[in-house]
């Protein structure tokens, strides 16, 4: 008995130590990331009317804001660098160029200062203007009543409208937003574009990205089937993927009157910008810029619009 | 030794068969069965010696094994950190090439390819070396595949002049940081903990405890034998006790020396290897953040903040003898920031993308890469070099345990012969 007990003890000790010396590694585990929630844009508390398109009367005489900029010798302009045709970096020259950029550079030139282009996201536009980190925004920015409560706008300088870009096979049968049931539609986070579609077709599946170009990446990777946004923006996206993407003939879902964004207190600067825009239309440089950037892709004459002034 | 022959007092005559066949239970006999007692003592004594030999040998074998694992874990840790450094170096090169505009520098492109090749071969080697890392490494491999695909797509689209190329570039860099960094951090932490724990695998106190327990057992046995046979010391037991004592002293001293050496290694070469690798990773992340800041043209405040965090890590971890090169680079970075903030973006980009054979950043990176390699090799050599002692002592302990058991058997056998 004692021999058996001793042998048992010996074997358990040996087994224990063998287990101790054996390689038993716990598997490497990556901690799960914290979930981030995106916030939907707050619903507008006002309804945009024709009166909201009124800006301050054109005036080149300037004031405190114009003096401040001339003194600094630089006009800080918020622009896009990835919206082909409106404001995009040319990879071969590293320059940012497009229809919006032509307007921005002309304003700086008329002020007699150097332009400083700062690339910003759509969500940055109002906070950066309010903090005076930038002087103006020329970044396909729509004039509306809610924004007028936070900043000031120039008179309308381009009239765009919200449309839908689709995979070319879906574009061939597109009848309108009602064709988007169970179709994944992408729009930049923080915009209301998807809501405009869902008002008509509630089964459209919403996807978001940081920018419209981010949506195009998702489109090219097969994660979404359609992108919605301004016709000008969509034209730039189609130009980058013209075999697989198309904007079918359609009625614009919304009106998107573009204006130059300015800090609410810089009324003299708004008046100066309006004077420059007026001059661009009269001397043909606006048309020249449209013909260079937008006409080849949109293939139509620009939508007619009449700049409105007289804001007190 | 006092072993004069004397008749054992405990011996009594064996019971008669008649007594054994008695119908009524008889009271317990008052004699002691000496041969059986001697057998039991012999078994106990031999077991003590053998168990001592096995346990002590196993503890030493486990220490030998732990040092081997510490070397392997250190190797794996540095391998993971090299993956991390190479990945950020590749990203720094890709973002820098993107910034240049127009045709990219072929030398930098070649370097990018070499870094990616190094990342992929290190991932394969790491998965082979440590199965516990293989799931995370498989995910990392997929991520690197996605990263290189996005970078290739960004290059191809850039060459067509479309801005969506920039989106692929940003997507790749962001994904590397949001998904790749947590994986690499988890791998570095797991392997640091493993190496650290394996370096603490020397157990001098266990060896001491086993030795003392064996000596107490042999002492008790000698006392029992002494009482029964009126001898103070049994030669065989004394031999076994001396063997146990010597083996215990030598193995405890060996384990203690290795434990001290491992402690020095932990705060010395191992620490140097980990610190230099951390500095190299942070330096390359800083360089990539510098390019990303410029790519974002005025909206790269977060990248500048990240650059600051990286720079602090470099200052904290890089060997001071290489910091002069780093400071040349930080002065250049300050100039880049000044130019960018002063509305001279083109000047900032020209300075950031200048290809110079005497580039301080490239020199700093090369020095750190060599430092990591040297500290790693040195730490592993140190861990490997002392292992022969533990494994030799382990085998010797087992043999000496057997020898001690034979000593016990002979010592008690002598008493048995006296008795018979």
UniProtKB/TrEMBL annotation, chain A:
<feature type="signal peptide">
    <location>
        <begin position="1"/>
        <end position="26"/>
    </location>
</feature>
<comment type="similarity">
    <text>Belongs to the bacterial solute-binding protein 3 family.</text>
</comment>
<dbReference type="InterPro" id="IPR001638">
    <property type="entry name" value="Solute-binding_3/MltF_N"/>
</dbReference>
<dbReference type="Pfam" id="PF00497">
    <property type="entry name" value="SBP_bac_3"/>
</dbReference>
<dbReference type="InterPro" id="IPR018313">
    <property type="entry name" value="SBP_3_CS"/>
</dbReference>
<feature type="domain" description="Solute-binding protein family 3/N-terminal">
    <location>
        <begin position="74"/>
        <end position="297"/>
    </location>
</feature>
<keyword id="KW-0732">Signal</keyword>
<dbReference type="InterPro" id="IPR051455">
    <property type="entry name" value="Bact_solute-bind_prot3"/>
</dbReference>
<keyword id="KW-0813">Transport</keyword>
<protein>
    <submittedName>
        <fullName>Glutamate ABC transporter substrate-binding protein</fullName>
    </submittedName>
</protein>
Automatic annotation (TrEMBL), chain B:
<feature type="transmembrane region" description="Helical">
    <location>
        <begin position="43"/>
        <end position="61"/>
    </location>
</feature>
<protein>
    <recommendedName>
        <fullName>Secreted protein</fullName>
    </recommendedName>
</protein>
<keyword id="KW-1133">Transmembrane helix</keyword>
<feature type="region of interest" description="Disordered">
    <location>
        <begin position="1"/>
        <end position="25"/>
    </location>
</feature>
<feature type="transmembrane region" description="Helical">
    <location>
        <begin position="233"/>
        <end position="257"/>
    </location>
</feature>
<feature type="transmembrane region" description="Helical">
    <location>
        <begin position="203"/>
        <end position="221"/>
    </location>
</feature>
<keyword id="KW-0472">Membrane</keyword>
<keyword id="KW-0812">Transmembrane</keyword>
<feature type="transmembrane region" description="Helical">
    <location>
        <begin position="388"/>
        <end position="409"/>
    </location>
</feature>
<feature type="compositionally biased region" description="Low complexity">
    <location>
        <begin position="1"/>
        <end position="10"/>
    </location>
</feature>
């Amino acid at each position: 008995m004692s021999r058996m007990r001793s042998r048992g003890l010996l074997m358990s000790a040996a087994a224990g130590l063998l287990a101790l010396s054996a390689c038993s590694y716990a598997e490497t585990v990556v901690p799960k990331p914290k979930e981030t929630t995106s916030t939907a844009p707050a619903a507008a508390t006002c309804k945009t009317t024709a009166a909201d398109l009124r800006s301050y009367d054109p005036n080149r005489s300037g004031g405190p804001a114009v003096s401040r900029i001339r003194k600094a010798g630089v006009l800080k302009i918020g622009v896009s660098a990835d919206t082909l045709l409106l404001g995009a970096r040319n990879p071969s020259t590293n320059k940012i160029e497009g229809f919006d950029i032509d307007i921005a550079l002309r304003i700086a030139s008329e002020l007699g200062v150097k332009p400083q282009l700062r690339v910003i996201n759509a969500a940055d536009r109002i906070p950066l203007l309010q903090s005076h980190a930038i002087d103006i925004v020329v970044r396909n920015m729509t004039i509306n009543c809610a924004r007028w409560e936070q900043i000031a706008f120039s008179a309308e300088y381009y009239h765009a409208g919200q449309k839908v870009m689709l995979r070319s096979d879906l574009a061939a049968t597109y009848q309108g937003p009602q064709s988007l049931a169970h179709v994944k539609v992408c729009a930049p986070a923080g915009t209301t574009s998807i809501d405009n579609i869902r008002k008509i077709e509630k089964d459209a599946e919403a996807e978001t990205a940081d920018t419209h170009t981010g949506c195009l990446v998702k489109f090219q990777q097969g994660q979404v089937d359609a992108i919605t946004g301004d016709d000008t923006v969509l034209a730039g996206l189609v130009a980058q993927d013209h075999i697989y993407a198309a904007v079918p003939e359609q009625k614009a879902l919304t009106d998107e009157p573009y204006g130059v964004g300015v800090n609410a207190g810089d009324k003299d600067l708004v008046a100066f910008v309006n004077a420059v825009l007026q001059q661009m239309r009269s001397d043909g440089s606006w048309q020249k810029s449209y013909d260079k950037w937008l006409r080849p892709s949109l293939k139509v004459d620009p939508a007619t619009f009449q700049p409105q002034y007289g804001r007190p | 030794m006092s072993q004069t022959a004397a008749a054992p007092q405990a011996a009594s005559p064996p019971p008669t068969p008649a007594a054994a066949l008695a119908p009524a239970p008889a009271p317990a006999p008052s004699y002691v069965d000496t041969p059986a007692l001697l057998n039991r003592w012999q078994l106990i004594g031999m077991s003590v010696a053998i168990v001592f030999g096995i346990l002590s040998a196993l503890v030493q074998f486990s220490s030998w094994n732990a040092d081997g694992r510490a070397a392997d874990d250190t190797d794996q840790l540095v391998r993971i950190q090299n993956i991390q450094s190479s990945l950020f170096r590749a990203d720094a090169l890709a973002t820098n090439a993107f910034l240049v505009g127009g045709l990219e520098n072929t030398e930098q492109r070649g370097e990018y390819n070499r870094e990616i090749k190094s990342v992929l071969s290190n991932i394969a080697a790491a998965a082979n070396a440590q199965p516990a890392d293989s799931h995370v490494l498989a995910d990392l491999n997929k991520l690197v595949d996605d990263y290189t695909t996005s970078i290739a797509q960004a290059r191809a689209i850039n060459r067509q002049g479309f801005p969506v190329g920039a989106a692929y570039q940003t997507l790749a860099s962001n994904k590397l940081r949001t998904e790749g960094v947590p994986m690499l951090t988890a791998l570095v932490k797991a392997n640091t903990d493993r190496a650290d724990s394996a370096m603490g695998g020397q157990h001098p106190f266990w060896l001491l405890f086993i030795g003392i327990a064996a000596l107490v057992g042999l002492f008790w046995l000698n006392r029992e034998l002494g009482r029964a046979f009126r001898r103070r010391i049994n030669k065989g037991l004394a031999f076994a006790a001396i063997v146990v004592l010597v083996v215990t002293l030598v193995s405890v001293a060996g384990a203690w020396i290795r434990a001290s050496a491992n402690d020095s290694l932990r705060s010395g070469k191992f620490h140097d290897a980990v610190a230099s690798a951390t500095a190299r990773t942070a330096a390359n992340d800083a360089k990539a953040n510098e390019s990303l800041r410029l790519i974002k043209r005025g909206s790269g405040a977060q990248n500048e903040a990240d650059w600051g965090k990286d720079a602090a890590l470099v200052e904290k971890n890089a060997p001071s003898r290489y910091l002069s090169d780093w400071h040349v680079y930080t002065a250049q970075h300050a100039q880049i920031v000044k130019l960018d903030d002063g509305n001279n973006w083109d000047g900032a980009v020209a300075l950031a993308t200048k290809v110079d054979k005497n580039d301080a950043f490239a020199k700093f990176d090369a020095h750190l890469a060599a430092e990591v390699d040297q500290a790693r090799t040195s730490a592993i050599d140190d861990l490997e070099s002392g292992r022969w002692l533990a494994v030799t002592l382990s085998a010797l302990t087992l043999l000496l345990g057997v020898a001690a058991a034979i000593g016990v058997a002979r010592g008690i056998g002598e008493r048995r012969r006296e008795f018979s």
